[in-house]
Amino acid sequence: MLKNNIFERLTTLLDTHNARYRVMEHETGGRSEEIAKIRGTHLGQGAKALVCHVKGNGHRQYVLAVLPADQQADLAILAKQIGGTRASLASPKEVSELTHCVFGAIPPFSFHPDLKLVADPLLFERYDELAFNAGSLERSIILKTEDYLRITVPELVVFRKTVD
Q1: Are 141 and 10 in contact (CB under 8 A)?
Q2: Residue 154 carries which DSSP code?
Q3: pTM, rounded to two decimals
Q4: In 30-160, where does DSSP find H-type helix?
Q5: What is the mean pLDDT of residues 126-155?
Q6: Residue 93 maps to a domain
Q7: Does residue 110 sit within a domain?
Q8: Structural domain range at position 136
Q9: The CATH number of the domain where 152 resides is what?
């Protein structure tokens, strides 16, 4: 059986596509704010990846929904945009099966055929680089935003909460 190492899969993918990135080893951070300070990046540069389960209207789909770490996801909007009626965060077991990662360590890349990648467009509008945990809570990758968009080609879906 092949050893599944998300970090190796990520760096191989990035190298194959001539991506501009750097790897950072660091202590485990808790919240997004903490890890941004540890990385020396802005909170909004963080690419927060949420594994969601969208259902309804005969629709059942796992979605890796990526948005800036300084934003909150509106799962009702996400469900509607994907074609379902409701969405929820996946269970820890589902997250592990679909990403081979624990909560907080999920990179904004899908390596599973049943996990659809979507990203909020704001992720690409503010910063030249994105930062994310690379399959581990102690290792991050800081990647040129345009390279992430070029390599992953996510479906662009606005699903962040807006303040009225």
Answers
A1: yes
A2: P
A3: 0.92
A4: 32-39, 75-82, 92-99, 145-152
A5: 95
A6: yes
A7: yes
A8: 6-156
A9: 3.90.960.10
CA 61 to chain CA centroid, Å, is 16
Degrees, nearest 5: CA angle 163-132-59: 65
Average pLDDT estimate for 102-131:
95
pLDDT bracket for residue 59 (50, 70, 90): confident
Cβ contacts of residue 71 below 8 Å, gap of 6+? Answer: 44, 48, 120, 122, 160, 161
Q: What is the mean pLDDT of the chain?
A: 92
Q: How far apart are CA 143 and CA 78, in angstroms?
A: 25
Give the per-residue pLDDT at 164.
59
- Give the Cα separation of 29 and 31 in Å (integer): 6
Q: How many helices (H) and strands (E) does the chain have?
A: 5, 8
* Cβ density class 31-45: b for 16+ within 10 Å, e for less: ebeebbeebebebbb
Residue 163 counted as domain residue: no
Better pLDDT: 3 or 160 = 160
* pLDDT (0 to 100) of residue 108: 97
Side chain identity at residue 130, one-letter code: L
Residue 162 lies in a domain: no
Q: How many domains does the structure of the chain reveal?
A: 1
